[in-house]
Amino acid sequence: MPLALAGLLALLVSGNALRPFERITTIDGKMASKSDYFKDPEVRRLLLKHGIRVDIHRLGSRGIATQPLAGMDVVFPSGQPAARLIMRGQQRSVRTARPFVTPLALGTFREYAQTLVAAGVARPQRAPGGGDTLYYDLDMAGFLRLIERDRTWDGIGYRAHSRRSNSGRVLVRTSSVCESNAAGTYLSILAFVKNGNRPPGTERKRGDAPGGDPVLDVAAKVKPLINLQGMAADEQADSYFSDEGESIAPVSLIYEHQFLAHQVGFQKRHQRADTRRVLLYPSPQALTEPQLISLNGQGDRLTDLMESDPGLRQRAIELGFRVRFSGEDSTSEQLNAYLREHGVQVPTPNPDQTKADAPDLDALERIINHVGNCPPAGGTS
């Protein structure tokens, strides 16, 4: 009896005593790497307070856009190209939410970052107190020259910064360009740089491409620069943060929020930063905008909550996202304050704010298909 009474009191305090008797709506959604937000236990608890449970069907962003959506209430691609593909195929006027943004970044390990600094293509950000920094700015044009010349890590001086050697090529381990928004966005950065800091496809409109196909010309230049792995973006991050991450890949394509959430968690567990792992911010930069797209009335409930519930916004900050607030495109100050509060170094904006403009949707699809030999968007595979 005392145990039963204690349990009842706990349920009453938490507000869950009547939960079994309330109607819970299950919302089915195809989601890409940002599904880790909806997998979070605290997010699940907050949604249950509103009578909502989200059933996640995991798929890469471009995979969501190229496969049927029958039976789904929402979709949550990790970036705008896939979101535009999805909305282009909808018959009804859809409701959407863009709750947060996160920069694309490269996760690496300290010795490799120091090697890139010595090679003249990376610059460390200043850490408070002059300690070991967690962040570096990466000159993509210089970095790509190392990749194009087939340089190895040992060949650019890795052994001067490590007790070990690595005769492997300087290359970024990416997820699948056919499935992943992260890989597609990285491809956009490469194409932008190789096309003279302008998006491919603008040449013909400007009348300065007298012959050939400028989009495919850029695609041919980019293809040797990308290492196709076929992993999902969140699985890519899981590999990077695993104990064997450095053995799997020296440099991995991830999102900033994944790195920041890892550092907050590491600080809580060990009372110090994970200084072995560091983040490279590419310049030109790319900010990804996940978009929650409702496909019916049930989905509308979720998109409305994502824009209106302060608890869901606060939890996004705690998971490393830069959260959108009313009247603003995006803000970082709330995230920075949270990082300081938890003893994690705050990243400094790169003085070079050049943004890698993505090609238009049709040009990007052609580049992705050429590089990855992907099935065209709109198929069922």
Protein traits:
single chain, 381 residues, alpha+beta, D-Maltodextrin-Binding Protein, domain 2, 2 domains, seven-stranded mixed sheet, five-stranded mixed sheet, 41% helix
Write the layout of secondary structure elements.
Elements: H1 2-14, E1 25-31, H2 35-39, H3 41-49, E2 52-58, H4 61-66, E3 74-76, H5 80-88, E4 96-97, E5 100-109, H6 110-118, E6 122-124, E7 135-139, H7 140-148, H8 181-194, H9 202-206, H10 214-222, H11 233-241, H12 245-248, E8 252-255, H13 256-270, E9 277-283, E10 287-288, E11 292-294, H14 297-308, H15 310-318, E12 322-323, H16 333-341, H17 361-372
Parallel strand pairs: 1-2, 1-3, 7-9
Antiparallel strand pairs: 3-11, 4-11, 5-8, 5-9, 5-10, 5-12, 6-7
Helix pairs in contact: 8-10, 10-17
How is this structure best described in words?
The protein is α+β, with helices and mostly antiparallel strands. It has two domains: 23-102 and 288-341, D-Maltodextrin-Binding Protein, domain 2 (3-Layer(aba) Sandwich); 103-287 and 352-372. Helices cover 41% and strands 14% of the residues. It is built from 17 helices and twelve strands. It has helices at residues 2-14, 35-39, 41-49, 61-66, 80-88, 110-118, 140-148, 181-194, 202-206, 214-222, 233-241, 245-248, 256-270, 297-308, 310-318, 333-341, 361-372, and strands at 25-31, 52-58, 74-76, 96-97, 100-109, 122-124, 135-139, 252-255, 277-283, 287-288, 292-294, 322-323. Strands 5, 6, 7, 8, 9, 10 and 12 form a seven-stranded mixed beta sheet that branches. Strands 2-1-3-11-4 form a five-stranded mixed beta sheet. It is globular, with a radius of gyration of 22 Å.
